Amino acid sequence: AVAHLVRHRRLPPAHLRFFGGAAAATVVLVALSVAATGLSAYPRFAEHIRLHSAVPLTNNMGLRVLVARLADRPAATPTAGRARLSSFRLEPRGDPTPHARATAAEAAAPAPTTAPAFPRLQVPGAAGDSAARPTRLVRAGAAAAPRPSRPATPFGRAVFYALGAALLALFGAVTWRLRSLWAAEALGIVLVAGAIELTCYYYSLFLIAALLARVARPLERAVLAAAAASALLVAWPRIATAWVDRYAAQSAVFLGLAVALLVAFAWRRGGAGARERT
Fold it and tell me: Which residues pair with 92 in a beta bridge?
């Protein structure tokens, strides 16, 4: 859309319909959700996500996870994982709301001296405990050690930012030539995998890549191959003994798919081959 605006000093009707529809959907859906759950649900959920993202998980995926497992692996120790996990704990959830909230007493409490080492975070009831109760995540201290699933060394962070900038530049160069918002949106999965650290199930969003087969049918083979490789990495224990390594490998698979799709469009002629369809 920016490229079209720069070239022609105006937005075409298809782009205006796209952004108008997005704005209308946002207004309608947010209003309905506030009416159903109350306005306080938004800050509660924001706190829940903030606490959730501060705890290292074995099934996180993304460029940051991949770089942390490769660039920082020789220097990585379980100490950072223990320090970070010591600032949180799982407790039985007695209140009806599913959002994690930290009380003032919990925030001021000293951090325990010991905690499970990353990545083996044991959850009560995970091993067949029939008496397991729903749990909520609460802050138990103020420890602020770096996450083991994020680059901890200056070299690792430099590698992450360099690769992230390269992915952003590649995405910008390819989409600058595109004339279709839907194709650019599908290619935008590279930004999700490259910039955001998500748990594995959110990678179902890669289904949108199948839409690109409308432009070039061979692209669907790449999408199917990535799905097969992802299933193999999880199902075959010989690939890696540690789950965190399996999901780091899956990060490489989906990042590779996203980059391959971008390169495929970069090599296509005629504005990357995707014309606006109304």
Answer: 135
State pLDDT tens for residues 18-38: 999 999 999 999 999 999 999
Q: Is the distance from CB of 248 to CB of 65 less than 8 angstroms?
A: yes
CA separation for the pair 200, 222 (Å, rounded):
19
* Stretches in the chain below the pLDDT threshold 70: 72-149, 240, 269-278
Q: What is the pLDDT of residues 161-205, one digit of tens each?
A: 999 999 999 999 998 888 788 899 999 999 999 998 888 999 999
Among the listed residues 246, 266, 208, 245, the one whose alpha carbon sits nearest the alpha carbon of residue 76: 245
- CA–CA–CA angle 151, 83, 105 (5° rounding): 125
User: Is residue 28 within 8 Å of residue 210, measured between CB atoms?
Assistant: no
- Give the amino acid at 102: A
Q: What residues form DSSP beta bridges with 135?
A: 92
167 and 259 in contact (C-beta within 8 Å)? yes
Q: Which phi-psi region, left, alpha or beta, contains residue 29 (left: φ > 0; alpha: ψ -120 to 50)? A: alpha
Q: Determine which helix (DSSP H) or strand (DSSP E) holds 21, and give its type and residue range.
A: helix 13-37
Q: How far apart are CA 260 and CA 263, in angstroms?
A: 5
Q: At what angle do helices 243-267 and 154-177 cross, to 10 degrees?
A: 30
Please give the Cα distance from 62 to 195 (Å, whole number).
7
Cα–Cα distance measured from residue 59 to residue 198, given in angstroms and rounded to the nearest whole number: 8
Token pair, residue 111, equals: 């951090």
* Euclidean distance between CA atoms 64 and 149, whole angstroms: 7
Separation CA 156–CA 159 (nearest Å): 5
Torsion of CA 197, 201, 202, 208, to 10 degrees: 130
